[in-house]
């Protein structure tokens, strides 16, 4: 989380910033915690930082300590409407790298038009939690290699998920999978969050695209959410990914904001 709650302070008492762990910094004023910074590494190797502070001077001291301690490049994520936080990161030398659109996705097949959508001939969809783990991890690695060879994994949703260092998948049970013969060819990850389900990823092998597999995966997952009583889900799409934008907007998804990814090199 990045937070700047106020631009003013009532005094000039000294602020001490200490690195308390490899990934956490605390800002203290007279032994009182007034801010914290965190660093998290994504599976693609990029290092994301975040700061929670009540005042600009505290934010600036924490970012100064973090940027001095950590190697570049460093990345941060802010809501596009949070101009104060964006300005604070710019003061620390960060610039906008990309913009990610947020979409509210309906689940009702009468709205999405996905009710009659079926997988293409020879393809079946395995519900979340039923896929074999090793073939699923193999598909994940293949998709990541294909993304890196093309647009780059940096165009995927800018999220940081806890996971073992050796794994690119936090929880295989959240993935529904498209299977053709004995090979997994597509997958969708839906996190069943309490507030609102989140579509974290839709991916299809390069040699199986343009066959309707992504729509079939969406039809399956959104239909399951609808039957469980969930009216909508959340998804993020890089603004430079026209295929994904067209897919979501074709099923009635509404843009509801944007997130900026910033970088300091």
Short description:
The protein is an alpha+beta fold.
Q: Can you count the beta strands?
A: 13
Order of helices and strands: EEEEEHEHEHEHEEEHEHE
Radius of gyration: 21 Å
> What's the number of domains?
2
| Name given to the CATH architecture of the largest domain | 3-Layer(aba) Sandwich
The chain-level mean pLDDT equals 87
Percent strand equals 35-45%
What would CATH call the homologous superfamily of the largest domain?
Gcn5-related N-acetyltransferase (GNAT)
Distance between the termini: 21 Å
| Biggest beta sheet summary | 13 strands, mixed
Q: Predict the CATH topology of the largest domain.
A: Aminopeptidase
What is the CATH class designation of the largest domain?
A: Alpha Beta
EC number: 2.3.1.-
Protein name: GNAT family N-acetyltransferase
Organism: Kitasatospora misakiensis
GO molecular function, one term: acyltransferase activity
Can you describe this structure?
The protein has about 260 residues and is α+β, with helices and mostly antiparallel strands. It has two domains: about 5-95, Aminopeptidase; about 100-260, Aminopeptidase. The protein has six helices and 13 strands. The longest helix is centred in the middle third of the chain and has 17 residues, at about 135-150. Mean pLDDT is about 85; it is low at about 5-10 and about 160-165.
């Amino acid at each position: 989380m990045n937070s700047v709650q106020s631009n003013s302070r009532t005094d000039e008492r000294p602020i001490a910033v200490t690195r308390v762990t490899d990934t956490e910094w605390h800002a203290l004023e007279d032994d009182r915690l007034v801010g914290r910074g965190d660093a998290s590494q994504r599976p693609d190797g990029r290092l994301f930082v975040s700061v929670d502070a009540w005042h600009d001077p505290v934010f600036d001291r924490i970012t100064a300590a973090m940027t001095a301690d950590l190697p570049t490049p460093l990345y941060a994520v802010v809501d596009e409407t949070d101009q104060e936080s964006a300005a604070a990161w710019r003061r620390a030398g960060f610039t906008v790298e990309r913009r990610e659109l947020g979409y509210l996705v309906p689940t009702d097949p009468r709205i999405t038009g996905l009710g009659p959508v079926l997988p293409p001939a020879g393809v079946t969809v395995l519900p979340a939690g039923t896929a074999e783990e090793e073939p699923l991890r193999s598909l994940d690695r293949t998709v990541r290699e294909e993304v890196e060879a093309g647009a780059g994994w940096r165009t995927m949703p800018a999220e940081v998920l806890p996971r073992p260092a050796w794994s690119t998948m936090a929880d295989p049970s959240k993935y529904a999978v498209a299977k053709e013969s004995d090979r997994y060819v597509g997958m969708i990850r839906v996190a069943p969050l309490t507030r609102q389900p989140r579509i974290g990823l839709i991916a299809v092998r390069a040699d199986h695209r343009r066959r309707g597999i992504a729509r079939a995966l969406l039809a399956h997952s959104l239909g399951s959410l609808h039957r469980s009583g969930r009216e909508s889900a959340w998804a993020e799409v890089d603004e430079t990914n026209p295929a994904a934008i067209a897919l979501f907007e074709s099923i009635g998804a509404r843009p509801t904001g944007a997130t900026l990814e910033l970088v300091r090199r």
